[in-house]
Design goal:
By secondary structure, this protein is mainly α. It is 62% helix and 4% strand.
Length: 1639
Amino acid sequence: MVFCLWVSLVLQVFEIAEIVDQMSPWGMLRIPRPLIMIRAFRIYFRFELPRTRITNILKRSGEQIWSVSIFLLFFLLLYGILGVQMFGTFTYHCVTDDTQPGNVTWNNLAIPDTHCSRELEEGYQCPPGFKCMDLEDLGLSRQELGYSGFNEIGTSIFTVYEAASQEGWVFLMYRAIDSFPRWRSYFYFITLIFFLAWLVKNVFIAVIIETFAEIRVQFQQMWGSRSSTTSTATTQMFHEDAAGGWQLVAVDVNKPQGRAPACLQKMMRSSVFHMFILSMVAVDVIVAASNYYKGENFKRQYDEFYLAEVAFTVLFDLEALLKIWCLGFTGYISSSLHKFELLLVIGTTLHIYPDLYHSQFTYFQVLRVVRLIKISPALEDFVYKIFGPGKKLGSLVVFTASLLIVMSAISLQMFCFVEELDRFTTFPRAFMSMFQILTQEGWVDVMDQTLNAVGHMWAPVVAIYFILYHLFATLILLSLFVAVILDNLELDEDLKKLKQLKQSEANADTKEKLPLRLRIFEKFPNRPQMVKISKLPSDFTVPKIRESFMKQFIDRQQQDTSCLLRRLPSASSSSCDHSKRSAIEENKYIDQKLRKSVFSIRARNLLEKETAINKILRACTRQRMLSGSFEGQPAKERSILSVQHHIRQERRSLRHGSNSQRISRGKSLETLTQDHSNTVRYRNAQREDSEIKMIQEKKEQAEMKRKVQEEELRENHPYFDKPLFIVGREHRFRNFCRVVVRARFNASKTDPVTGAVKNTKYHQLYDLLGLVTYLDWVMIIVTICSCISMMFESPFRRVMHAPTLQIAEYVFVIFMSIELNLKIMADGLFFTPTAVIRDFGGVMDIFIYLVSLIFLCWMPQNVPAKSGAQLLMVLRCLRPLRIFKLVPQMRKVVRELFSGFKEIFLVSILLLTLMLVFASFGVQLFAGKLAKCNDPHIISREDCHGIFRINVSVSKNLNLKLRPGEKKPGFWVPRVWANPRNFNFDNVGNAMLALFEVLSLKGWVEVRDVIIHRVGPIHGIYIHVFVFLGCMIGLTLFVGVVIANFNENKGTALLTVDQRRWEDLKSRLKIAQPLHLPPRPDNDGFRAKMYDITQHPFFKRTIAVLVLAQSVLLSVKWDAADPVTVPLATMSVVFTFIFVLEWYSGQDYKHLNVGEVTMKIIAMSPSGFWQSRRNRYDLLVTSLGVIWVILHFALLNAYTYMMGACVIVFRFFSICGKHVTLKMLLLTVVVSMYKSFFIIVGMFLLLLCYAFAGVVLFGTVKYGENINRHANFSSAGKAITVLFRIVTGEDWNKIMHDCMVQPPFCTPDNSTYWKTDCGNYAGALMYFCSFYVIIAYIMLNLLVAIIVENFSLFYSTEEDQLLSYNDLRHFQIIWNMVDDKREGVIPTFRVKFLLRLLRGRLEVDLDKDKLLFKHMCYEMERLHNGGDVTFHDVLSMLSYRSVDIRKSLQLEELLAREQLEYTIEEEVAKQTIRMWLKKCLKRIRAKQQQSCSIIHSLRESQQQELSRFLNPPSIETTQPSEDMNAINQDNSAQPETSSQQQLLSPTLSDRGGYRQDSADTGKPQRKIGQWCLPSSPKPRSHPGSSVNLRSGGCLTVKTVGCKMNPMSDAASCGSEVKKWWTRQLTVESDESGEDLLDI
């Protein structure tokens, strides 16, 4: 910067020494000098944040802005290519027949200059005497033809950007319509405006808003809090109000008291005094607004307005002196409001001085209207909310002003030396030019004039300079104002939850009362319906009984019988007694029941179950914490599922107070602190739960009370719920009408067995069919057909004189009559719960029907202008609005838009106040001064007479120079002294209209030039200040308020950060789809290598570069007559073959696993490849490319070139899929289009209504400045194009003034409106202003709101996301592994495998979170009844489990989710207990079987031992055969009844051998006569014995005994064995009995 200053100083010395000319190009060396103001920004803002944090914020915002700029460049390149191929050059013009090449002048062109088509069947054909010629062939240069057009890709992109700025685009479209087919021009430019101007460019606003939200958090300390409304010198004290209540009032404790008496101080503080002053301010404003221009001869200094101003000035001066006397001067100036009042007092006092009257001091007089803001507290709060924290808005205003100064200085140094360019000769001119570009009004003219002046060489550089400045100023700077206003309207996070609860309470209160149209029955006496029992045998007269009571008696008869049969006291005291209650007692019972708690027995039982389950879970959690299972974990990223699961468990444990009652002795300080925090959290959780439960109870009570009230009215008033008080409630005809009215297509197909909803193939079509009832579908079709019929009407083909158009009118009225009669008979007209006229939609239906019926019956043949018949025809044009009533989504859009219209109304008041201030000032300064003679050479009014020759503007695009002796075309006109045609400041009404047009940024340049030229350059500040306030603050305030109002009505404005992230996550998950990608081939062969190549990022980038290279081939138009086209097409064929090879090698080997390549190409629809939509698109484009190559070499004509260009454009879209940023931003635009579909349809319906009305009002208006053969209201189609132009703001005010033409400038006709060419002044004013406000200010800003919402959905950072893109990608990969059929659904049992495969933040650790795993598995089984689950079902379950539902979910969704999780936990606990009991039973049965088998084996062994002792010693007992073991195994449980059985106990050596062998195999232990078997026994051999364990628990013992004397101690041994075995049998039988009792 120092170097630039030295260079500037040296250059200044050279200019002073006259070495260098002051107006030379060397002045461009001063360009960097204005950038020194950047240092002022650093001093002004004084950033207190660390430099790294500021760098990170700027880096992040810069990356986002760069990404959106790339996205904008993508669309500019796309439409640039389309423009080149669809249009090409606009060089064909209508010229005279005698035009010679190289000698084209202004007089050779048509007036006005008209483009033409060289084809006879399309475009515009020149009139006789003219011919269609190419001016470039006639010798005109590129500079003379202009720089806008579609000649090549560079010029085309330049032209597309101009059109996307909505400045001058309509004239480009008119040129294209004259030169090419009409449909091509409409398609290209309308889609360009919709996508580029309304969708893509608004993404910049979304970027700035998201970035500014983060910056606001970081710079909160610098900007200050926005919630403080009282100063620091005030305190709050209790004061008693007039009603006897107490309220907190802010009192300034440091405010000194004045010397005025107490009575005056009391009077000054009284509300009467304030209202008197404000009423005087209002009267002063009215008097000032009544001022008008009275003529030049009228003396203006001492008229009645001047005297009134003197009186009001004295009054307000006395008010200021009184306040100073009462408060003291120091106390008076301590208030900001008093400072403003003192400034007004001083300024208005100087203003009434005669020499200063009607001077710049008039601003102080008109600024008194600002004091009226104090009248409305809502308006005052709104103004403070917007402008209270003024440092943010003030900093932005200073930054904008500094930017204008810097850019004006740079532009001055760049273009001050350019000849024939007077826009940058001085700094004020440069400032006005750069300010004009900032407002976008006529910025194309500024750029075109500069381009023509600098020449063809420097034109591209200058164009890039202006485009970059325009891009920054209009897309970034204005978006900053919107971001600041939205941030000021944003609520604090701690208030959003409270507002949500209050809103829920308000909704509950509104649902409690019936509508007023139904409550009117309460004013009448009760007359319940009575019935007479005639078939009852009795000697007495039976009175009449209420019909409702008899119905209840009949319904409960069966219940009473069951009560008597059961004879249960509880039942007889509850249901039987309840059935015998009378109607009055029943009502009392219901009222008492409503006053009690809403928790029923079922709810209490559920609460007890939940308490028990939470107690068990809490104990388990406490045990795990005490055991230290949570400690010593590896330092890795913990699963968010596990984290949220433990958070919920801890919250539920706190809710039931388990941790709040554990304070005991001997605890450390840390433990006590933790217990205290747990107690606080427990109390907060209890308070939050009580608030939620209270709201839930209130809602339930409100619904019950509403139902009770309705039932009481239905019972006590016989005419209640009777259509037209005639048709009965249950009449057959009414039931038939109900069936007809409510019949609709059932879109959901359910399984009759499981009850699950089936996923049909065409579910979207089915949902569309089930959107409305069959009757509404019929009426929608009839209404559309009627609107189509109305489009054929015109002033020259009227419905009164066209029988074919009358048929559609009759059909509409007949069908609507049938519809209304059916709905009235089914639901009633007005005094029924579901009446036809229950909202504004019903009123509109009846109004449209009556208007159509009256018009059909009347059918006037003559319709005078401005008559009742014409008004009836205008009201008939509201017929398309019927679709708003018939389609529920359209009604929802209207309700969300207009339900909270308070803020929009307040903004309108602020803008009207701003306009009134500047209008009053303009009347007092410019009234009568703007009139001038139309001859610019005449200055005085006395000389303004006679005629003069005026030149005609032939063309705005051509830059022809007059040749010596040549004159421009013109004609002679009379001189007239008059105001400008479209505006004046002679009275407040005209001034308000002019400022309203200026507020829309249309026509303000003309107002500025007229004021500067006719009043003085200093007064140009007036219009610049108004445009700055109106554009930068007023219109951006309107945009911000519309967005905030829409979000508030939709429910997103009150969402906290966590709730908004959750809503974004749900929307993101709906869009997510399975990958449908097969895994990599297992082997390392050719297919695997090709798979690796196609998956490499370098391969994708190479393909993207090839796509761009092929798209560059469309830089010039492919014309069959142009020799350049053939090589370009040949190169495109080469690229096509490359893409074909890429598709075969990349896509087939990438997406297919089995089968030969030839079979895949022949089949063309393999399942793995066909599942991906992107692959289908690539396949389609590749197939079209192959077809084009064949046709190209076969035909080689214009159609094949067109097809080749289309194929390249289609392939150009595939770049979005290869670039992550472009893909996300394109998804933002696509989803915004999908969500704004009904808003777009609503805009079209409004536009259609205004088009029909415009044909009636202005169909025959004469052509004027902007009403011409392209733009007029002669038919509905042309009216739609004109209104679409007005939506973009393209000269809408000039079209309005053309439609205001009045005699003597037109020919009136009082008989019929179609015979006059005059306009309608009042009708045009209301028509155009209302249309522009509704469409441009409200409806278009809704698109901005939707784009802002969806931008945060797709383009949030990893820190802001609950589930990152990596988590979603990982889940898609795992799903792709589990879903082997690529159908998008899997069986429920596979969810377990899917959850086990998840890793990272979605991982479920079965060792730690086994209970969570059970919960998730059971949730999928419960919600889907064991059927198939989809990709989104599992992803939705994981998303719910991965967030803190208390913070992220809203009230209704939170209640439903918590109830579901409680139920799941209860059912899982039941299943766990049930499975545990089953395992216990199974274990007990296994023990019984084991004991029985052991007893059987012991008996076998004892029998063998007995036989061994009884037989000779040489005999050896061997192991039984397998067959015998099998028999013994089968009969192990049966008692042995053999008479030869003998019981014998094993010897000591045998037991020891058995134990030794069993110890070797599995170490069985004997407990009270029971053998414990090893878990996995295996046969082994031992010298003494061997034990073989087989299936079934059979045990076989092989013993080799010792030889001993059988005769010694035989008797004693036998007796001991018998005693021991008897004891063993006793013990075994006792244990078996205990086991059976345990079971």
